[in-house]
Amino acid sequence: MSLGGFSAGDHRAIAQATDDPLIVEPFFHHHSTGEANPAMSTTPLLNLHEYVRCIPDFPKPGIMFRDITPLLSHPAAFRETIGRMADHFRGRNITAIAAAEARGDPVGTTVWGRVPEQIRKLALLYAVSARHQTPRIDAEAVRWASDFVLHQTRRMLFMAQSHVAENPFHADCLKLFRKLREAPDQQMQRQHLLRAMRCKAADFDQMIITLVQQGDIVPVTIQTRTKTAQGYRLA
Question: pTM for the whole thing?
């Protein structure tokens, strides 16, 4: 994130904001939101701040560097950190990163892996914009930044998956998807779809077989004015 447009005073304010405890509160402070986690209810909560070493003015004056090496080397503290992080996201139906990794999608995995960094940057900009003299990254800043980044990430990946092909066959499949997506009820008669694709019948049949086997499209029967016709619909 470029900070070239800010004044010297704003630079100091940003440095203070990055040292704000609100950045680490969600994970280093435990807030009960309901029933206790059974895996953590038998032992008292640790003060995880005690396992984070603060190094002032590093790597440059005005920056507070937080070293988590002591936390990583303490089994109980590290286990509780992982537990609190899991509690924070439990029940939110987060599957995007796992899905990208599971299907061997390096682009999706990389893009989703950058999401936390982008959220932190936008939350900081929101905080500086709201109170440039005493910026604080609060829950509203994080919520706004999260909604914006998640929306843009999903949109970017959707556009990439819709238009970026790995080979000519994949390009034809993406074209077929677009034709069905633009059709009424996302379905078309076979003869109309073949005409729209402007390809050989043998190549068309190979695409149809592959996409049906993958579960991307399903065969359907479409009622016309005079008879029923074979067609295909997006799954």
Answer: 0.49
State both tokens at 133.
């003299």
Contact 172, 197 (CB under 8 A): yes
Fold classification of 168-234 (topology level): Arc Repressor Mutant, subunit A (1.10.10)
* 83-140: pLDDT as tens digits: 888 887 788 777 666 667 777 778 888 888 899 999 999 999 999 999 888 888 888 8
Domain residue spans in the chain?
1-92, 94-164, 168-234
Residue 212: the pLDDT is 94
**Residues 36, 42, 44: CA angle, nearest 5 degrees:** 85
According to DSSP, the residues that pair with 220 across neighbouring strands are 231
Q: pLDDT over 70 for what percent of the chain?
A: 79
